[in-house]
């Protein structure tokens, strides 16, 4: 999905499957406390006695349910079962036999068999090395609102909500630096893993970045609103890393994608971001037995994730191609020697063209980004992806930098979907898709004959550019907005207050004073939270409810009409037990 080079400052890098660029202008270092690690697990062990050259991976597809008979046949035909997903009837098999696929196609109950690679399975698959844990740099405080966030009105949406910590977003990518200062506050290690090679590796740190791409994407979705670096579209939600890229090549093979979607469904991800295409084929054609099996396997996994409540958001790609009028593929297979082949619209870019997946094109400031793929009835919505200047976000090691690509557009949409899920508890993936279309702002076709359709729906921009403010169901907050983003530590059995000084507001506070509260604290049943008016009147917001739930990220409405607006208001937090600590991360008043 590589686009043409955008110039010396924004040259696209390899591998081709990534829908983004290498970082440019990395900015000054930043650091963060370590996130809680997932429980230590044993390294995956080999499914065969020794790795041998010529080992290839295959999908063996059968009826969902008990796959034991087909799994037994794999061994009898010269293969081994590397992973099995009985719920969808997909087995990942390895074999060095050149007749394995044809032999398995003759087995009773087998529906399809297809090679998932044109290269050997790496020996690393049988005992994967953990990615590096980069040293963390530091950066000066300050997180100016970026142009891409104002473009989709995310900065105004934060006055309504920054998202709920109960909403989990999966970053299916090259991995995520969980210790980055802007990602650690929102990182969910318990639901993170590596799916490289096609089965879950839950060892602590297996989810870390083998490049830079996934960490950049994660920051756009949910970098913390903590006074440092950058702010994500939904800075109050939780993010998990499911690394599906393999080290060295950073390729995203079909078995890795299947594992990622199955993990997402089983771990309650409300949204996943997918800024890649499934290697080694840029387009998978159903008239090819291998590629037909790839389509079916990944499709079943996506449908499984959706059945569990997960919406997939995916990048459209960076080759400036009309996905509604496919003719030629020159980039596949990208794990061996690409060839030029004639294709049709039946050939699919997956996962982005699978049913149910939200396909995202990229905009610059006002126009389609030069590299972005497009296509009437293929593109669902659009978002900023950067063009000449790029999108600024997090990079491993506490750093920051800019990238451009539909990879950068897709996480903006995933963030807006997370805000929608935060303000609509219980919303289904189908309803999320509908709301993403409804809240988008129409973008008309330019004077460009390639752009087909109408102002309300066209091949460049789909239903339009996402609007975070409309997504959270509000207009810009009326009156004045005051906020304190400083961190105030909450110790065991202590009381802490964070002040906000209100000025230039005539008369009394409204009967609908909005109080936005973001408290990071485990076991919020320990906490009593009050708003203190300038005259000392106490308005209770939270009183030791929520039991073992973590964090308070909520907007409260207070009838403060008897209070003079101007003066110093305070958020007071009482911790009433031992064993759990935290901080006031930020809070605000909207008059």
UniProtKB/TrEMBL annotation:
Q: Which InterPro entries match?
A: Galactose-bd-like_sf, P_dom, Peptidase_S8/S53_dom, Peptidase_S8/S53_dom_sf, Peptidase_S8_Asp-AS, Peptidase_S8_His-AS, Peptidase_S8_Ser-AS, Peptidase_S8_subtilisin-rel
Q: Establish whether keyword Protease is in the entry.
A: yes
Superkingdom of the source species: Bacteria
One GO CC term, this protein: endomembrane system
Signal peptide annotation: 1-19
Q: Name one GO molecular function term.
A: serine-type endopeptidase activity
Annotated P/Homo B domain residues: 475-591
Q: Which GO terms describe its biological process?
A: protein processing
Which keywords fit this entry according to its UniProt record?
Answer: Hydrolase, Protease, Serine protease, Signal
* Enzyme active site: 173, 213, 407
What does the similarity note say?
Belongs to the peptidase S8 family.
Protein name per its UniProtKB record: Peptidase S8
**Native organism:** Streptomyces subrutilus
């Amino acid at each position: 999905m590589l686009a043409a080079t955008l110039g010396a400052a924004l040259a696209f890098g390899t591998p081709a499957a990534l829908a983004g660029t290498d970082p440019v202008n990395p900015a000054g270092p930043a650091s963060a406390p370590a996130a809680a690690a997932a429980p230590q697990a044993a390294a995956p062990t080999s499914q065969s006695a020794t790795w041998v050259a010529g080992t290839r991976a295959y999908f063996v597809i059968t009826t969902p349910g008990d796959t034991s008979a087909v799994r037994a046949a794999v061994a009898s035909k010269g293969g081994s079962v590397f992973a099995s997903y009985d719920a969808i009837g997909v087995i990942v098999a390895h074999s060095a036999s050149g007749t394995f696929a044809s032999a398995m196609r003759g087995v009773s109950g087998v529906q399809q068999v297809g090679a998932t690679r044109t290269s050997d399975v790496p020996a690393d698959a049988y005992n994967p090395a953990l990615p590096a844990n980069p040293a963390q740099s530091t950066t000066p405080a300050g997180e100016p609102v970026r142009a891409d966030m104002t473009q989709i009105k995310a900065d105004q949406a934060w006055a309504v909500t920054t998202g709920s910590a109960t909403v989990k977003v999966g970053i299916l990518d090259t991995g995520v630096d969980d210790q980055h200062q802007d990602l650690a506050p929102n990182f969910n290690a318990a639901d993170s893993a590596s799916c490289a090679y096609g089965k879950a590796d839950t060892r602590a740190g297996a989810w870390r970045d083998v490049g830079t791409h996934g960490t950049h994407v994660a920051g756009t979705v949910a970098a913390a609103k903590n006074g440092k670096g950058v702010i994500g579209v939904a800075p109050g939600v939780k993010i998990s890393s499911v690394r599906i890229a393999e080290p060295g090549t950073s390729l995203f093979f079909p078995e890795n994608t299947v594992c990622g979607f199955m993990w997402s469904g089983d771990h309650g991800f409300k949204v996943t971001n997918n800024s890649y295409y499934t290697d080694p084929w840029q387009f998978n054609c159903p008239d090819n037995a291998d590629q037909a099996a790839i389509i079916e396997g990944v499709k079943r996994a996506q449908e499984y994730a959706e059945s569990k409540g997960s919406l997939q958001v995916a990048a459209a790609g960076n080759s400036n191609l009309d996905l509604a009028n496919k003719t030629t593929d020159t980039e596949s297979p990208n794990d061996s020697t690409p060839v030029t082949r004639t294709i049709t619209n039946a050939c699919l870019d997956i996962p982005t063209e699978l049913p149910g997946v939200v396909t995202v094109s990229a905009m610059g400031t006002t126009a389609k980004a030069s590299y972005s793929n497009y296509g009437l009835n293929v593109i669902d919505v659009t978002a900023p992806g950067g063009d000449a200047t790029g999108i600024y976000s997090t990079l491993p090691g506490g750093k920051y930098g800019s990238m451009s690509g539909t990879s950068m557009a897709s996480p903006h949409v995933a963030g807006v979907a997370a805000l929608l899920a935060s303000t609509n508890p219980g919303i289904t993936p189908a309803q999320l898709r509908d709301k993403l279309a409804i809240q988008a702002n129409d973008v008309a076709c330019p004077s460009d004959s390639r752009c087909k359709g109408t102002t309300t729906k066209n091949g460049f921009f789909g239903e339009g550019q996402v609007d975070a403010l409309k997504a959270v169901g509000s207009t810009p907050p009326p009156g004045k907005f005051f906020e304190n983003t400083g961190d105030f530590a909450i110790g065991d059995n202590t009381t802490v207050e964070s002040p906000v000084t209100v000025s230039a507001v005539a008369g009394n506070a409204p009967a609908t004073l909005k109080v936005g509260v973001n408290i990071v604290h485990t076991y919020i049943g320990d906490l009593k939270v009050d708003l203190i008016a300038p005259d000392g009147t106490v308005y209770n917001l939270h009183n030791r409810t929520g039991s073992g739930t973590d964090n308070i990220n909520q907007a409260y409405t207070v009838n403060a009409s008897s209070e003079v607006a101007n003066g110093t208001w305070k958020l007071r937090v009482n911790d009433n037990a031992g064993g759990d600590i935290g901080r006031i991360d930020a809070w605000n008043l909207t008059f």
